[in-house]
Amino acid sequence: ILCCRQCERAGTRMGKAPATYGASTHGLRGDYSGMLADYTVEQDYASYDEAAQGRWRRLYARQMKLVPGRACPEFLRVIETLDYEQGVPRFAEVNQRLSAATGWQVVAVPGLLPENVFFGHLAARRFPVPVWLREESEFDYIVEPDIFHDFFGHVPLLFDPVFADYMQAYGRGGLKAEGLHALEYLARLYWYTVEFGLIDTPQGLRIYGAGILSSPSEIDHALASPEPRRIAFDLRRVMRTRYKIDSFQQSYFVIDDFGQLFRETAPDFTPIYQQVAAQSTLAAGEVLPGERLFG
């Protein structure tokens, strides 16, 4: 679940009009009738019938054929240890291992969340994951994150201590940003790192963004296509850059390592927001003079 998509549903249970930061014409979904005050729900494991379990196993098998040689080492070290090939994961079982590794937990939610709820969970080292699985008609493409997207794309990197700390710092920054009218900038940061980030390794560019790792087609587009721009990560540049949520990305931003993400998130963003607000917004795919590009 990501704040830049969550903006589409922000406030639907809180009397606020939704905010839209990414362009999309797709309606989002989720059953919020049984949630608690923090938007969490119980995982009704019996609700995943054999068709759903089979769909999960096919999704997993497909992506596992694609990630070797493309995903970052931190992802690959973990993904095969999580027993995802058996079927839809149980939150409690994943949490036993995740909590021991980095102090994080995954929490079950109905779907996309208001921004303040999402940030609050991240700040407390809780990653919200929707309980529903895509339908068969959505097997190849889904706009909003489902349980497969989050468990496959996001959860493995929460086992990495540095990346896990970055996610918590991001959540804390989000809680502060609400009063600074800066949520759009943070949405772009999340989009271009956690969802669609690339990392430079001795073996070449690799993927760490969950939106790419869980996609059957963008995984090649991100690394091999000549069309997108692969730009060296710069915090202010990322915060200025627009994105579209339901098409291949025109720009990807490349970090040196996860430590860079954490270092970039550590300073007080207040003056950075002011600097970004004073500059023009950049179109996806736009390249600035002097930027370092990757092939």
Summarize the structure in words:
The chain is an alpha/beta fold and 295 residues long. Helix content is 41%, strand content 10%. It has 13 helices and seven strands. It has helices at 3-6, 50-66, 73-79, 91-102, 115-123, 147-154, 161-177, 183-195, 210-213, 218-224, 235-240, 258-265, 270-277, and strands at residues 105-109, 126-130, 198-201, 204-207, 229-232, 251-255, 293-294. The strands form two sheets. The chain has a five-stranded mixed beta sheet. The protein has a two-stranded parallel sheet with strand order 1-2. The chain is globular. It starts with a helix and ends with a strand. Mean pLDDT is 90; it is low at 1-26.
Oligomer: single chain
Task: Note the beta-strand portion.
Answer: 5-15%
Summing up helix and strand content along with how strands pair, one would put the structural category as alpha/beta
Number of strands: 7
**Helical segment count:** 13
List the helices and strands and how they pair.
Blueprint: H1 3-6, H2 50-66, H3 73-79, H4 91-102, E1 105-109, H5 115-123, E2 126-130, H6 147-154, H7 161-177, H8 183-195, E3 198-201, E4 204-207, H9 210-213, H10 218-224, E5 229-232, H11 235-240, E6 251-255, H12 258-265, H13 270-277, E7 293-294
Parallel strand pairs: 1-2, 3-6, 5-6
Antiparallel strand pairs: 3-4, 5-7
Helix pairs in contact: 5-7, 7-12
